Amino acid sequence: MVRWFRNRQVSNDRLVVALIKRYYFGANLEDFLSLAGFKLLQPTSSEELLDLLSRHDPALVVVDLTQCDVSVLPDIVARSNGSKTLAFGPAHEEKLLNSAVDAGFDEVVLNTYYHRELKSILTRLLPGYVLPEVDRKEKRRPDYLDIPANRDPRGESQF
User: Superkingdom, according to UniProt (predicted)?
Assistant: First the structure.
């Protein structure tokens, strides 16, 4: 099953396909892309990813290396039809990272670098598109409640 964000199809130059199942990595990507006017398709398996790549020519293909089999990586690059490709994975999986490099991905990065430097990675891989500034501190700040230190929200003492 493919999730269509905002339930609209868009032109291929404003489309990104990402095989990312972990919310931690997918949420930041979705935030940046939606602010820049891109639509994100997230297949649930590598087979669905290959099917999408045979039907679309996205601007970028993103793959979480822990979510697909190593044997599929060359097929992903072959079917990307000139689209930029990005793969990321954990530092302790050197064989996995090297297999993505050998398959021909445009950029292969560690999970920590992907999460920390996502905007600069997207700026490099999507030239000509301006990604807006996102003030992460403002975005992540919760709504604070004025609750005395020794009371919980239900009005009961914590002691």
Answer: Bacteria
